[in-house]
Amino acid sequence: MSQGDQTxxxxxxRDMPLYxxxxxxxxxxxxAGEWPAHHRVPSENEIADTLNVSRMTANRALRELASEGVIxxxxxxxxxxxxxxxxxxxMGVRNxxxxxxxxxxxxxxxxxxxxxxxxxxxxxxxxxTEVGQPAFHSVILHHEDDLPxxxxxxxxxxxxxxxxxxxxxxxxxxxxxxxxxxxxSHTEQFVEAVLPQPWECKHLAIVRSEPCLxxxxxxxxxxxxxxxxxxxxxxxxxxxxxxx
Length: 244
Description:
Blueprint: H1 3-6, H2 18-31, E1 40-41, H3 44-51, H4 55-67, E2 71-74, E3 78-81, E4 86-89, H5 96-102, E5 107-118, H6 121-127, E6 134-144, E7 147-156, H7 174-181, E8 186-194, H8 198-204, E9 212-221, E10 224-234, E11 238-241
Parallel strand pairs: 4-11
Antiparallel strand pairs: 1-3, 2-3, 5-6, 6-7, 7-10, 8-9, 9-10
Helix pairs in contact: 2-4, 3-4
């Protein structure tokens, strides 16, 4: 960082608590273009050492800025000025790769898991199959410009897509493949706010307290369930929109 980057002035309205003045100054720098999107924000330790404030004060300022979507905190890397929050339509089933390309960004997938599993009671009910029957399971982490924005945890009905695990998911998304071979006749989906599990935090590079958006979705082709999928998005990096 330059010398100017290393010194956050705790300026602004003097009646504000110190953490609010820190927030105000960071926002001022961002709005003025001094710190553009993806610029690294000084760490809690750097802020505390430079301004002689407690780490608790610095942490609160950065934590609240992250919850407001002003900055993005990437575990193990630091805090960065957020780009405009990504949006996706809640209704309908979009291909994440297409969404990212439409925003002028680069989509990069990482296959974490791809294997055959045996259905227990819960999975058999989700796929409307029998207990003991096989199901395909894939977990893929989707990046936008190197930032992880979606963790896709998907189960697929082998009766509909017997060649699913043979696909190269570095070049085609599960969504694109499945909709091509089994056109969607109808969907069922729910959205909720959740806290991520430890293994999800690791892949999304977020802290355990980061609120996330979770979409649970099932799709049918004719009268057969094709897939049951969980789509997890860090709340500070993504939002869902609905228009009518």
